[in-house]
Specification:
By secondary structure, this protein is of the alpha/beta class. The chain folds into three domains: 1-32 and 271-451 and 511-534 and 541-547, 2-enoyl-CoA Hydratase, Chain A, domain 1 (Alpha-Beta Complex); 36-261, Alpha-Beta Complex (2-enoyl-CoA Hydratase, Chain A, domain 1); 456-500, no CATH class. Helix content is 40%, strand content 18%. It contains 20 helices and 20 strands. The chain has helices spanning 5-32, 37-45, 51-58, 116-132, 161-173, 191-194, 213-220, 226-230, 232-238, 249-261, 286-289, 300-307, 361-377, 394-398, 401-413, 429-434, 458-475, 482-500, 502-507, 520-531, and strands at 66-68, 88-95, 98-105, 136-142, 177-186, 198-202, 207-209, 244-246, 313-316, 324-331, 334-341, 346-347, 353-354, 358-359, 381-387, 389-390, 419-428, 444-447, 452-454, 513-514. A hairpin with a 2-residue loop joins strand 2 and strand 3. The longest helix is centred in the N-terminal third of the chain and has 28 residues, at 5-32. It is globular, with a radius of gyration of 26 Å.
Length: 547
Amino acid sequence: MAISEKELAFNFNEDQMRLKIRGLEQELEKIYEGGGKARRQKLHDSGKLTARERIDLLLDPESKRIEIGALAGFGMYKEHGGCPSGGVVIVIGYVKKKQVIVVANDATVKAGAWFPISGKKNLRAQEIAMENHLPIIYLVDSAGVYLPMQDEIFADKEHFGRIFRNNAIMSSMGIVQIAAVMGSCVAGGAYLPIMSDESLIVNKTGTIFLAGSYLVKAAIGESIDNETLGGARSQTEVSGICDYKVENDQECLATIRDLISKIGEKPKAGFDRIESMEPKEDLKKVYGIIPADRSKPYNTKEILKCLLDNSEFTEYKESYGKSIITAYARLDGWSVGIVVNNREISKNSKGEMQFGGVIYSDSADKAARFIMNCNQKNIPLVFMHDVTGFMVGSKSENGGIIKDGAKMVSAMANSVVPKFSIIMGNSYGAGNYAMCGKAYDPRLIVGWPSAEIGVMSGAAAAKTLLQIEVTTLKGKGEEITPKREKELFDSIKNKYDEQISPYYAASRLWIDAIIDPVETRKIISMGIEMANHAPIEKRYNVGVIQT
């Protein structure tokens, strides 16, 4: 039986997506090695576990988890030997069935020293804890700031010191913080466990002090060893700085589990949830729906059928503003409002053609109203990006596209219900902003391996920059042959393509993770569960919206 052209395209798309997923898995496998086998063995020889081993013991066995920023630092700091996962592992998971966020220094990476991306990643963990009133557990094992790069992590507002400011703010908010000193904890970093609600220290391997023995000797001439200066006995029996002395990593983690188990319930945000239903469509079908050629249209509703409970959704204003689909649905039982770019070519009421993935005035108007409705109904919002931007040209400008786009951005930016962003494909220009990019405080933002994030596509950017470059060179009297023009184009495009890849975004924490599309339901469901810990206290107010 002959295979149709549609089936061939589906199979090709599926193969390309699986290749991207396998590439992602291979990169993550390398990252999970941390600083390498030799350094992991050195930790084990000293009686310590690695960061990931500690997290595995702390969290409930076989429970769901989300790792934040596994690709942080990817491809960065090559002159310093790299910094896998930013030298710190951050996971949202469950301890005694209670949802928590865990921050664990990776001592196999530069002894857990803080690179600039390490600081940014730690602040992201605290941001998640603060937004969602999530208990946070710090597993401390760090040599402090990475001195060769201290100028990029020490003094600014969003640098190292912000962490201790957040410790104080979270404490005032009633957010539980537990810190375990499981290795080195020095200098300014010593404030983190002590500004937490409770602290533990591991005997013989944990030390905490403002200055180590060498610095003490140099500063005041006192000769003293690190264990006497700031070991477990000193800091629990003498100074009383730490609350619990434990004999090893295993006892430490078991004690934390016990402490977490006794936390009482607090008021919830009240998001609606019923019994979960699996989608009728297999989620892996998504692999074949997303075109390998990102310029090709596809039926976005088929993707929704793979994600949503029972593959059902109630579309809001189905016949109006068709380049954006807005719909009420259930995802793992949770009530959600979906805002997703429609990638099919459609026609408006005037019979005018509208390109898929482009935001027009009518679709922006519809999305703004839907976002406001979800805020009125206390329904979390899920934004799914495959957007090339807003429509341009004289017709759109005269029709007030800027005004309508501003309306959508205003409605979304002022939302008080939690927002989640899934970047499926393109996320370009102001389209990224309107669809709740990183700048608009999504509780979680992740990308599929097919994601791209930038001002515009690589080809479009290269064409624009090439025109400028060619004009400049001609002005200098240079002759530009077709061959030379192609070389310039390829050079510009290759550089731009690297910058818009999901790996570039993930390495800089513009997104929290690159995920296999099959993980999408889990990410959103766990995200809403954590957001439900934080009652909404702010009234929804969009301010001035031009109509």
